[in-house]
Structures are given as structure tokens and as C-alpha cells.
């Protein structure tokens, strides 16, 4: 098989994703603007297919997905030290997004590009052809800019948690959950007090409590570890409870940021992260896949409530952004 290479001869990863596009956004006096780069191959006036793109490039063999995206962003636009997050990592080409300050400098670092522009979403979509390139911008434009922060669950949150479980988009998946404060206290009190192996965090979106996530080591739950066929992973569960924030692309970012900022520092060295949504919960499964998880084995096949074990490979996805120390409890 002939090795695939870039235009300048650099090998391309055979496994998907083969590369990454990073949509860079900033807020200006004219509204939200997008960074697009002009390729130099056909001269400065060329305006056909592939003339304009967001920072985009191939992933090298064995290169972690996040590392490759950050490398391309630096090589093509000179942008470093920013917090990119996934829009969709499940396809042939990984799609990331990042919001940067209005005064962020852009430096064209290689000969591949001869100019850049900050333009509106409509203008970026119009210039970035073929259609699949413009679709990268269009999809990112539908995701709101927001700030996500995580804090420990406290008892004052239990009433919110019960409301979140009863929300129209969630109630189907929490039918067996606690129905009142007393039941919520019995289930979550030990987790709040730190005497259970499960830890729970509330996600605040722009300062407003909007849902919760929980984490644990599979080895602390032998039946779960056996079903997942993995005694060395960390596992997560999650819920965006506020209905107005569902199906806006926030769930994928929330999962990603929780894994990176909370789970991995807490359980340093775990090689994998597992989540096991109900097999019928397609919205949850897609959020995981877009965050870099792959669908694995199914638990309880043929039963009424089967679950998919979705797995994120820490090294493949996060690479040098993941520590290598021994797991901690």
C-alpha cells in the first residue's frame, strides 16, 4: 500500500481521523468573526475550492488527535496556548473550535498560506468551498460561546438534581432514580461526604448550575468492571439538566472538559475513560462519539435496558496532555 503524504511529503495517519480543522472565533464590535486562511498554491487572487479554509492539516502516523490539531493551529496561524474543544471527533476529519480574545495575533508560519481574514460566519461559509469545508464553519457557528466550570455537588443541589431528572429530555433515562429529597440524600449523601467511591460535580455554564457529572474507577465496582471488561479505567456519567441547553453542542464540550480537567487529574495514569449510556439513548451516544469516545461492547444484549460501553483512549486522543503517573483513587 502506498503511504499517504501531504503536499510537502509528510506522512498522513492511516487511521481516522486523518487530520483536523480548528474553527477559530473571536468577538468583535461587528459580532462574532471567524479566522480563515488563504492557500498560496494558485496565487493570491485564487477563489476556487480549497482557496480559503480554517486552520486545517493532516495528522501524522501515531500522533494523538489533540496534539495534531494544536500543532496545525500553531504551524498555520501561529496561535498557541488556547483551549480548543471538540465539535466532532468521530469522522474522517476531526473538528475542533476555540474562542480567542479579540486581539489574538495571527502569524502565517509556513509558505502554504499567503493571507488571512477575520470574517462573519456567512462570509466564511461562502468563501470556504467545497461545501464540506463551509460546513465546518456552519456547524461551529451553531454552538454558543460559554464558560464551563465544575464544582463538587452539595446538599443544596439535591432539589435541582431531582428537577433535572424530571426534565422532558431526561426523565426516560432516570426512571429508577430517587423521587424525593430523602431518597436523593440516601443515594448522593455518601458521595457528597466522600465516603463512597463515586464523586459528583455540578457543571456551571456561564455561572449557572446546569447539570451534573460523576466519576469513579471501574475497579471499585467489580460487576461493572466485569461487564465493561476493563478493571483499569475510570468511568463517567453525566446530564445537562436544563432543557434550553440541550442539543446545542454543549454536551460534547462538557464531557471533554470534564474528562480533561477533573477526571484525569483525579485518576492520574488511567489509560481509558468509559461511559455506558442506554443503547437507545442516541443523543448521549453521539455526544460521546463527538468527544472522542468509540462505541465498544454492549452490556446485557437482548435485555430491556442494554447499555453501550463507549471508550476514550487517553493516549490516542489527548496524548501529551495526559499525565503518565500511576492511577490514584
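Q: What amino acid sequence fits the structure above?
A:
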Amino acid at each position: 500500500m502506498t503511504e499517504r503524504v501531504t503536499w510537502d511529503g509528510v506522512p498522513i495517519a492511516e487511521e481516522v481521523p486523518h487530520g483536523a480543522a480548528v474553527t477559530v472565533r473571536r468577538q468583535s464590535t461587528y459580532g462574532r468573526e471567524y479566522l480563515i486562511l488563504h492557500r498560496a498554491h494558485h496565487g493570491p487572487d485564487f477563489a476556487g475550492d480549497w482557496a480559503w479554509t480554517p486552520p486545517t492539516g493532516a495528522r501524522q502516523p501515531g500522533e494523538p488527535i489533540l496534539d495534531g490539531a494544536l500543532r496545525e493551529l500553531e504551524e498555520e496561524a501561529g496561535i498557541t496556548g488556547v483551549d480548543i474543544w471538540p465539535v466532532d471527533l468521530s469522522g474522517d476529519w476531526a473538528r475542533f473550535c476555540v474562542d480567542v480574545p479579540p486581539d489574538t495575533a495571527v502569524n502565517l508560519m509556513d509558505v502554504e498560506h499567503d493571507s488571512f481574514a477575520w470574517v462573519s460566519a456567512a462570509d466564511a461559509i461562502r468563501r470556504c468551498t467545497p461545501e464540506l469545508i463551509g460546513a465546518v464553519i456552519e456547524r461551529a457557528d451553531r454552538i454558543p460561546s460559554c464558560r464551563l466550570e465544575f464544582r463538587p455537588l452539595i446538599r443544596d443541589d439535591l432539589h435541582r438534581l431531582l428537577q433535572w431528572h424530571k426534565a422532558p429530555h431526561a426523565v426516560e433515562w432516570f426512571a429508577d432514580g430517587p423521587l424525593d429529597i430523602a431518597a436523593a440524600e440516601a443515594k448522593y449523601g455518601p458521595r457528597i461526604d466522600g465516603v463512597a467511591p463515586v464523586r459528583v460535580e455540578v457543571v456551571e455554564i456561564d455561572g449557572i448550575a446546569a447539570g451534573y457529572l460523576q466519576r469513579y474507577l471501574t475497579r471499585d465496582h467489580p460487576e461493572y468492571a466485569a461487564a465493561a471488561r476493563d478493571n483499569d479505567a475510570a468511568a463517567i456519567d453525566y446530564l445537562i439538566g436544563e432543557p434550553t441547553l440541550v442539543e446545542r453542542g454543549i454536551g460534547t464540550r462538557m464531557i471533554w472538559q470534564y474528562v480533561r480537567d477533573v477526571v484525569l487529574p483525579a485518576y492520574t495514569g488511567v489509560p481509558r475513560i468509559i461511559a455506558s449510556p442506554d443503547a437507545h439513548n442516541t443523543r448521549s451516544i453521539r455526544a460521546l462519539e463527538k468527544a472522542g469516545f468509540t462505541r465498544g461492547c454492549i452490556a446485557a444484549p437482548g435485555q430491556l435496558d442494554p447499555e453501550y460501553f463507549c471508550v476514550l483512549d487517553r493516549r490516542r486522543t489527548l496524548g501529551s496532555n495526559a499525565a503518565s503517573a500511576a492511577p490514584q483513587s
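Q: And what stands out in the fold?
A: The chain has two domains: 19-141, 148-321.
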